[in-house]
Amino acid sequence: MTSRGGEKVLSLKFNQDHSCFTCCTDAGVRIYNVEPLTEKAHYDTSEMGTILHCEMLHRTNLIAVVGGGPRPKFADNTILIYDDVLKKFVLDYTFTQPVVAVRLKRDRLIAVLRRQIHVFSFPNNSKKLFTLETRDNPKGLCQINSLISSEKQLLICLGHKLGSIQLVDLSVTELGISSAPQTISAHQGEVACLALNSQGTLVATASDKGTLIRVWDTMKRTLLVELRRGSDPATLYCINFSPDSEFLCCSSDKGTIHIFALKETHLNRRSSLKKMSFLGNYIESQWALANFTVPPECACICAFGSNKSSVVAICMDGTFHKYVFTPTGNCNRESFDVYLDVCEDDDF
């Protein structure tokens, strides 16, 4: 899809605290601040070629990129680390298969391939610590919790069996040694979307059916709540927790952003048909307390703003949306739909 400036958006990705996001296009990479929405940096194709994956390290000078798209300069099986202060690439990691995702922590780099995940110490004296085997993972599903001060330092990814996920302790410091992954059987079908809260205590999963989101306790590996996005199958693009884990939002190809309460679940809506017991679990599920619409069938990412009662959505058509919701379910547009304009000169 193409932004108003004529660039085709290839991928969108928030940084770890959702205060910034990267926008990879067929004209290069652009980095935006979320609140206020401003472009912070851009790298044209003359510098990097077209990039398919770009991962920030919080708001630091380091970004990870993987080549792809119509005019790549770098191979799709290589992760390169760019230092924006030095204005040059400082590290690279090459694999035998294409990289489908990359994740960064202040002390770890995670390279996601179709059937393997490699964990490296990072950025100083970077070495491979261990490798995980997964089932086929074309979407690059893998999440890590962002708070370095958290008691739990977790990585979550696909398991070996259909519908399962693995939970891996990232606090390992010795080469070649990792704790045995723990497994949750999350769904009967393929897992299609994952999210981990910043504290590493909650994980949210959705299957390729896209009707339900399940939230799990990572310590006990037990189901805490089941949230219903809708009754029709859908492709989920994104799930995210609020910073305090009291709310959760998700986006799908139905063009609706759904917002759920996790702490005060009584705020979530229940079906008016709850007395009809023959409808079973469909009626018992909790429905979103609030929602708003974005362009349908247009992939987008969503996250909570600096105010936990606001949600932003950034779409592949180049539009930016921000809404504020109340515990009673009201949802109002805070800013009009904004296009991510293309910066035509080098002053940014």
What do you see in this structure?
The chain is mainly β. The model is unreliable at 342-348 (pLDDT under 50). The strands form 7 sheets. The protein has a 5-stranded mixed β-sheet. Strands 1-2-3-4 form a 4-stranded antiparallel β-sheet. A 4-stranded antiparallel β-sheet has the order 5-6-7-8. Helix content is 2%, strand content 49%.
How much of the sequence is in beta strands? over 45%
Q: Cα-atom Rg, whole angstroms?
A: 20 Å
* Basic shape: globular
Major beta sheet, strand line-up? 17-18-19-20-24
Which regions are unreliable across 5 or more consecutive residues at pLDDT < 50? 342-348
The end-to-end span amounts to 25 Å
Number of strands: 29
Counting DSSP H or I runs of 4 or more residues, the number of helices is 2
Helical percentage? under 10%
Task: Determine the structural class based on helices, strands and strand pairing.
Answer: mainly beta
- Biggest sheet record: 5 strands, mixed
